[in-house]
Protein 1
Amino acid sequence: MDRTTAAIGDTPANHESIVRLVGVHKRFGNLVVLTGIDLDLRAGKTTVIIGESGVGKSVLLKHIVRLLRPDRGEVHYRDQRIDNLPERDLTAIRPRFGFLFQLGALFDSMTVAQNIAFPIREHTRRKRHEIDKIVREKLSMVGLDGIQAQWPAELSGGQRKRVALARAIALDPEIILYDEPTTGLDPPRADVINELIIKLQRELGVTSVVVTHDMASAGKVSDRILMLYQGQFIFDGTPGEIIHCQDPRVRCFVEGRCHEEDLDSLQVKG
Amino acid sequence: MLTAIGSKTVSSVTALGQWGVFSWQMVRWLLPGLVQWRTWVRAMPLFFEVGNRTLPVIMITGTFVGLVLAVQSYDQLRAAGFENRMGVLVTLSLVQELGPVLAGVMVAGRVGGALTAELGTMRVTEQISALSAMGVDPIRQLVVPRFLACLLLTPLLTFFCDMCGSLAGWFVAVVLKGIPSTHYWYYIADAIESWDLMVGFVKSVVFGGALAIIACYKGFHCRPGAEGVGRACTESFVISFIIILITDFFIGTFFSGLYRGIHGFKSLV
């Protein structure tokens, strides 16, 4: 099914809110990153956050799972406010999120199977054969069954991300957060990840949030696209709408053109 | 100038506060963790790592310090007619001071640096964030087992250091200088009290715990990149070394005063 077509007529408003950010501000020293972000994530939908490198997309993603605490503002998961919860109370909420880190963040002292089994062992009392079965299932979902005994260092970049994705879905989370899932991969490998994002949303019914600056990926997987620019969202719409957006900042990004001021700073003539 | 001093002071106080919070969080996970089987399962490979990495170098250090102490002190003791008590000087120096300090410094160099590098790399590659994102507390998972391994193994390594030094002293005294072996051991047994052993034990436990917390804290808070990890390792060792020397002085002074208050002055001759 064409994702763009699917998004039209099936607006996010039809679905319940699962995560809500209200007026989130964040700065690191003198660097202001987020300036009053409001975001409402709808259950079962794939939201893509785009923006230039260093604009604060990953910072925003980390606020959703409270890996970062906002300086000001609120973060809600369902009906619960989580930005002010102590770390200990978050351990019950975080397994409902799966987080795919930019570089995978696989534990290099563990094999592939141990990596995927790790969250299951920590949060459930399942027996060893049951855990082995889940590991096999999750690896099959990402098309990598049979590599259980390998070490992360032996895997390619694409395989590492797929294993990390298998680990992220090990506890059957409600929400999967993807931090630059296709960065550093060649186009065919990047497309495999895109297909996986679509497949997981379709088969598991999860809510997905994808942070990327890859427009091909954003267009393919998203139901809704938001563009972050200087700490604020400057676009919120469907993949179809962003193509027709006339905001020059959005146009530059979508078309992959640099800004006039960047050209001036390079002193490029003509 | 004033701005620089102010900024440095603020960053130092902030770092101290962060270290305090980090240590408190570790203690909060440690106490309930002591009765949990999983804590010890996590710590078991680290016991092997700490012991295996450090034992050979500790034994070599203890042996040569014992040899040097014996060789250096023999002539002076002989001139005073106390050469038979050479074992007391060597063993007491090792048990109360040199053993715990040398073992602490060796563990800080051999294990502390490796812990900082390992945790620093995990932080830089977001493995620590991945633990948090899974709902697993990284302090419980990574710091508590490493703290336990250093805390419990530093006294054991100190014991090996003391033993090797004492045997090396025996070698110089008995084999090279012809002092009767029975005299060497008799005066040691006569002079060394359980108090001396307790002081050495307390020091080694404190040094082990302190260097583990410093190494783990530096790893958890290192700056990004290879340079950040390298710098954290160096800082971890230097701070551990200084803390070991400072706490050695305070613990030594405290127990020395306490002993005098309870038992009075103790003469070794």
Protein 2
Amino acid sequence: MNKILIGRYLPGTSLLHMLDARAKLIAGFYFIFILFLAEDWPAYILLWTFTFWVMHLSGVHFKTYIRGVRPLIWLILFTVCLQVLFTAGGEIYFEWGPVTISRFGIESGIYIFFRFVMIIFISTVITLTTKPIDLTDAIHFLIKPLRIFKIPVEEISIMLSIALRFIPNLLDETQKIIDAQKARGTEFGKGSLFQQMKTLVPIFLPLFVNSLNRAEEVANVMEVRGYQPNAKRSSFRKLRWKWTDTLSLVIMVFLTVGLLIMNTIV
Amino acid sequence: MAMEIRYNHVSADYQLGPIRTINVLDDVNLLIKPSSFTAIVGHTGAGKSSLLKVLNGLIRPKQGEVKIGEYYVSSNNDSTSLKEVRKRVGMVFQFPESQLFAETVEKDICFGPLNFGVGLNEAKEMAKKAIYQVGLDASFLQKSPFSLSGGQKRRVAIAGILAMKPEILILDEPGAGLDPNGKKEILSLIASWNKNDKLTTIMVTHEMDDVAQFADDVIVMEQGKIIFHDDVRTFFANLDQIQSWHLGIPEARRFQLLIEEKTGVSLPTICLTVEELADCLIEVGLA
Amino acid sequence: MVRDSTNPIIEVKDVSFRYDLRNSAETLSSLNFSVQKGEWVAVIGNNGSGKSTLAGILLGLYKPQFGSVTIAGYELNDDTKWEIRKRMGIVFQNPENQFIGSTVEDDVAFGLENLNMPYEQMKERVYEALHLVDMYDYRHTDPTRLSGGQKQRVAIAGLLALQPEILLLDEAFVMLDPKSRKDLLKTLQKLKSQHQLTIISITHDMNEAASSDRIIVLKSGTISSIGTPKEVFSKELDIEAPFTEKLRRILQMKGRNVPNTYMNEEEMIEWLWK
């Protein structure tokens, strides 16, 4: 639970911390999109330069980012191997049945690896430098147009922010119940798969009951504090768009242009 | 067999993701006598809960060890010996009713004993004994724990610990959130197990009236360290010290001081309960 | 303190309620009482007496099968309950589940957001309310770093921001340590006199009840007594008593010549000194 880095906010005062969450989200999604425009190694050099520059701007140590990749490393290597072993093109180095190791295969394997890692790094940058509540506010802003399709944007938003607020409580409660059942002699991680799953019932059931009770209490509190789902509500929290946010989007445009140029070299 | 509890240079800390906290326990040295009733007081964050958790191995000491009779908890216990410790050190968490999960009260109470290798029939016998011990009767055994009132749920949770027949009972604010009558009943039960069954009892609490009424000894903690450990009357004797620790005093003591201030009459002893105060007032002729 | 004795701000007439209509036993039976503007009324009773149900009814969470409730001039029904909730704030017992916002100021603003209040006005009210409970410095703090007492302060600020006339406390201090309880009680007493609030406090704490203006004692869903602390504690002998009353009863039992009625601390000390 503690080693997953994506989703953990580290307070700070870097330039990235100061950017509007909407700008970061938009830029982030856009970056992932243009990743797939890169055709050859000059383009990837440009992308890597950009990625490292952004990571440097975040003020967070490079080691922390590496730690964020580690949990996913097997998935990445597996996908890379598939690419390397089963696609053919250009000079062939080794062939055996369905397995073909070719120049194209190796190259595209490397590029897949690059793309994976860059996506993780950039996503990590966003979640490290953006308060979760600001992210939900940004999401709220960006999905507002969906109202046309009768999607309850406001309700989804408030559900997200309340869920976020109670996550630490849920984690604490889980730990407390785990401790209580350990004190009663439960041993986790021992025995057959079936036995191990059985030990989870004394955790999940109380958690579930506790969460239901909590949900009912919170709903009552919201109601008596005047919350009505379909009524118009103002917002105390404000996201403020500054010139630096516009600048960040302009930089993305430049990056795209640069990428297209790089594609023409080689 | 009465077990003595000894903390030897125990230090412990927490790991929370990439953050390592400062020592929650800092070079703790303690001797807790068998069959005593010890209250642990101090501010939130002083380390009280950690002191309890290290006693049954939920937190391992970074340094030092805790000896419980012939068992010990240190940084390199394997899980078998921890299980032996947990069989003998029963821990009741705050709001213990949140750990109830079984279909019936009986099944929930049997959970602990079954985990420790007791046979089903014997476990059911222990459950029956335990339900009476907490002041309920056998009719509760087949009910669903979720259909009970808050106070009843709490008793069932405590019964689940008593059924393991621990020699040491550690409790974290057992009266929290209960109405005065409910709290009185639970604490009286705990006191009776201590006196009659010689159950070594360690209780974290904020309520000074409970400390005055039930505890033999008091431990004061601050920032992971033990700053006081002595008997209860010595604890309440030095008012300045208590104030410097920002701790409260029992109602009776508070009123005694008010009476002494307003009337100028000094009472013969330190009154910790309303009965003692009444006797003192009669003795000096004020009442 | 000037009490308006002819203008009740809350009137409960003949209210009966049961959760399960199949059950003939009523949780609340024929309740009749009124609360005057500016009073501090304590509602006490053992578990099962119906205290929390009464709170739920006053808040419009449950509808009584019989009787009527009038609050701040409005007769309580499904339409008026929203208006009433703007004038009556409640503090529940669980500090955690009451905290909706992601930071202190966000939570205080929650009630104002529900009223669709413009931002500038909200800001003013939020900061004013935070100052009143001494939590302004914590306005950017998230709830994981607050104690139970601090969270209850924030809850109170959230109500004050609405500028209510009535404060309903539903065992609001039960989960707090004794010191926080004392501090919060003092804060409330100060706020009450500063802002002419009416306070209804459902409580177990007899010392708190002893300092109220009137006490309503509930037993098995009916009102057993209503009166001043002196009247109630002298009469109701099976409920938990405040400290001085405990002392008085023990002295009486030991044959001393104590008065037959409840005395508060000052009165007790005076009597001792004679």
Protein 3
Amino acid sequence: MDILERLNLENATLLEERRKQIFVKLKQDGQFDISCNRQSAAGSVSQRACVFCGSRVVLYPIADALHLVHGPVGCAAFTWDIRGSLSSGASLYRKSFNTDLREIDVIRGGEIKLYDSLVELIDKYKPKAAFVYSTCIVGLIGDDVNAVCRKVEREKGIPVIPVKSVGFSGTKKDGYHAACDSLFSLIKAAPRPAPVQNSINIIGDFNLAGEVWILKRYFERMGVRVIATMTGDGRIDEIRQSPAAALNIVQCSGSMGYLAKLMQGEYGIPFIKVSFFGIDDTVSALRDTAGFFKDPDIIENTEELIAEETARVMPVIKSYAADLAGKRAAVYTGGAFKAFSLIRSLELLGMKAVVAGSQTGDKDDYRQMSDMCENGSIIVDDANTLELAKFILEKDADIFIGGVKERPIAHKLGVGFCDHNHERKIALSGFEGMVNFAKEVHSSVMSPVWQFVPRRKKNH
Amino acid sequence: MRHIAVYGKGGIGKSTTSQNMAVALGEMGKKILIIGCDPKADCSRLILHRSIDETVLDLVRDESEIVVDDIVHKGAFGIHCIESGGPEPGVGCAGRGIITALGLVGQLDIFKRDYDFVFYDVLGDVVCGGFAMPIREGYAEEIYIVTSGEFMALYAANNICRGIIKFADQGKVRLGGLICNSRLVDNEIELVESMAKRLNTKVVKFVPRDNVVQYAENEVKTVIEYDSKCEQADHYRDLAKNICNNKDFVIPTPMNKKELNELFLSFQKSSSSAHVRVA
């Protein structure tokens, strides 16, 4: 019995509670409605994660900070090195420290262990700052993590920042929110630095496969100074200098847009949303940034950069696009913003998205997604594995673009896959990123192996 | 705004005393908020003249969007009441319930309103981290312990002081004093005053035992509402005044079991009954 028979997808039905979270686009400008932004339905194996996971993935790339998970060892072990964030130097962030709360600690309270762990680790590693993540257990027994952090901060003279990341206390988005609050308290505690001309902070890029470095090269070329990168290749001192910037550019607004809002409220620093996935997005992002400064030199440098890079990459992309014309893709991401970028990039390759969705999008996001897709496309919020499998087969997608949890679905169904996940090893940002993306998609879709998989055999 | 937590042995009269005191303060024109931190949700009955169904945790359970007006109930003398609520006996985790409920209250900007006093009425046995939530940073800064002259009540008061030290060390919370709810114990006033002194604090008010408190409760009222001119009503007014004027806030100095036992025994009248075994 092959996997398709085993899955028995023909007879699979939708969970009743999930009905409103799936929208099938039947015609352009037709009625649109979708239910979203809610807790996952119990029994539907969502691709989402908990509050703690949300906080961890945002903060973990800060390379020279101590990251201590206060709780049982599982939470720390399963988030160890959870992202593919690279560092240009410090590597303390790659150690997943943990207070190893056990039964007796749950009964007696874990504050003493937390205090001792912090002291031991700070003495040993001398970090610039420490983040202390709360987990489910800690939320239950009522450890006053804030108080312990304050105490250690007084004694050791470095910022010791609690992260309100109790797993059961909300959704992954609440985890992002908590991470931003913690970062902001770090920023606020420092004396306000003097403003620096023509400078930005890059917010919401986690330096996967070195993508932040790609962006920094562009900005250097343009004549724009980057004060802090949050949080990819992040450094505590730079982050504390971030209020010196004139502008915040926000890539992953789903996870870190809130921080940009906080900085605007406190320091008056404006922010723009940008995307560096795909040619159009990259060009807009560079132009929007340059346009903010209204400096003729910067603007000229930017146009030169764009012209050069576009001339360099477009022929390569076109050659891949020639083979890919008319092919169909399924796209499922964490935040909706990235899905837009992917759909646009796919268009450049002559492909169309027939299934599109995200874990955390809101209604406006999905409306926009629906507008970008063709009639007959399926839009889905907070999908489970069975739904994704069924939709992909129904729409006969040639490739599935998603994250680490989506890869097995694709390969088991005999469908090509492109990893756009936070563990990816290939840079997908900027001009060279688009070339990499085209190459990845091309080699996956065009691989001769798919003619031998059960799905295709059935259709022949 | 003064944030005051009221602790004490279960059944000693915390809720009764808090509510009667609140009404006396309300009578003085003060704006009061009472936050019940007890899963029994019975900290505001006498002021609202009924038991309420809409505790904070009831609304969390129903997954409704929580709006301030849903959880703040208005009672006698314009006093506002919030009940945290919690699980049924024998299930779940009441401590986490308090953490969640108080967290929500903080998030809803309720403390941005201009109350003169916010009272946290806390379950008797502070058995886990959650029940100490009211004395964490951002909540109560003063604590009053309700006791009587009975040994177990004093034992509990002493124990609570040990807990207070930890929070006083790492935050602003301090002990404001003891409130003695008389149980007609021999030499009660002297005993409790001596106890207070040994704990580095004082007795803020000695409240005599009077059945009018029960009569008022039977009608689901506080004493001042039941019989404004009676002597007991004036005692509560006196307590309210003392709380208003109190400026002595200390870190308590609790004693060990042996010392507590000896102190207690030294005030007992007859030798045959003066034998209290310490567990």
Protein 4
Amino acid sequence: MEFILSAVQLYFTSLPMFFNPMTIGLLLLGTVIGITFGALPGLTSTMSLALFTPLTFGLESSQAMVFLIAIYSCAVYGGSLSAILINIPGTPSAIMTGLDGYPMSQRGEAGRAIGLATIASALGGLGGMLVLILAAPAVAQLALRLGSSEYALLASLGLALIAYISGKSIVKGVIAGFIGLLIATIGMDPIGAYPRFTFGLVDLIGGVELIPALIGLFGIAEVLKQVDKGLLKEVGFQKISGILSCFSEVKKLWGVLIRSVAIGTFIGAVPGTGGSIAAMTSYAIQKRVSKKSKEFGTGLPEGICAPESANNASVGGALIPMLTLGIPGDPMTAVLIGALLFHGLVPGPLLFEAHPDFISAIFLTLTLSCFLILLVGLAGSKLMARVLTIPQYILMPTILVLCMVGSYTIRQSLFDIGVATVCGILGYLLQKVEIPVAPIVLGLILGPMLEDNFRRSLILSGGSLMPFFTRPGCLILILLIILVLFGPSIQSRLRRKTGFKLKSSG
Amino acid sequence: MRKAEVAVAICIFAVSGLVFYASREYPLADLGKGGAAALFPCLLAGAFAVVAVLLLLGSIVGSYSREKTSSFILPEKRSLLSVVVILLLLLATPYIMGFLGFLLTAFFFLAVLLLRLRDKPLTIRSALTTILLSAGVTGVVYAVFWWGAKVPLPVGVLLGA
């Protein structure tokens, strides 16, 4: 009971801040930017966070987080609009929404599909947020007991999760992770402040700035990718009607929503997974348990509600490891870590002790953004459908200008525009040889954490590696790392075996 | 064996070699006293080279991948030219912006790309639209960052003098 009371107390700590018109304005602006960027194909939600982080330069850290969390939460929802209207998911997490949303839209029921996606997203977001409020303080308390050797292994665990976000090839994912780790070694070493790989450049002594690197990897590289594959032709405007009629329909889908929220939050909390895996799993499970499983893909309300509520619930889940351990749940939370560092805050358990108001601002923003999704999504979807008609040949150059200004803003340095450009070219070339970009970010963020804690642990033990194998926390983490590293291959072997059995029995 | 993967592996060997070579100047002794600045980069470079060997082996055996992947594909001529134009503009931007400042550079950057990326033939009307769009977008971005976020954008040597 005391635990719940303290969670509620933490939740309301920063409530007075939300009576400030500036905060409300930032929340609304973040909502509109998030939905717009999420909806527009070619503009990813990670890109939107990387681009708008520099805009928070003059803001107080809590207000900056209100703006960025609103973008994060709403961009996940925004992807569903283009998936439903033009069958091109604005974000990867909306891929499954299009499977049933687009057929419904083709039947002239675009309004109904958008209404269902909006309500499911808002409810999913609220569910994930509820779990975040209850779980995050408890995990933070547990994390306070960890020493430097456990933190080094925790960072290694985060890196091991690359196996899950590697896409087709684990080796290629690992290569990307190493690229991130190597970039992170540029600049002064974390213990002795010895300058490394600076090539005599003063601008590199402080290391490669995270935000310009992320802008390059997710902004410039994405624009180059879109131009490379040929820009989309102009999209026609689609009429939307009957959005509000779906409220009564949602009442029949409570079971779907509760199940999907639980799946989404759990998957979101596993570092390295994110909204797309949550949506896919939820859709697959719903299809398996549904009485209408054969009708999936033909425009079924369940097929929209399951992935949409799961991907929005994953937002709350992904924030648990990010806020309590400093480990990103997905590429978007990796950018959020960059934003926190930009504002001089280090994610981890101490954040809960030192800045409860900041944590509370995140909780309240998540709650309010769910209501705003409902408001803007239901009332403004006709306008959003019009936004989708903006031609890509106008959008892409505009994004590039935002990339330039965003990179410059961090240190007011033209050198950082060069950093973003180099990272953009690197990201583009890597994607051409099917090496994923997301693990680079994990390496960039977890590299300093790994090196700092690994060497600190060596100093404490007088150069011995024994603490890594004698401390109980370390042993558990080593077991988890082994499980994560060999889990996918064991899983695929089991799947092959089961498949074989099924075939032979059939 | 795919050429793209061999090229990636060669790049990795080169990077690992460079990291080892550059790390020879950094201290490595005194693991227990914190003076080992070369330790982490050397460990990474070694592991990176091992991954390159795995990539090469995987490429030969063809068993590392869960699915067959395609190799490096060059874009169509028109898209390739657009990518090259963007890259050249981006690489030149830090130098041009230092001289011309943000406003002129962004306007020039946008105008060139809007003309390059549109797929319809250029008319007087579309040229005017391009100029207006470039000026409008530059103005909005400038206003948002200069007045909204209080970020002093580069004025440039030309106008700042």
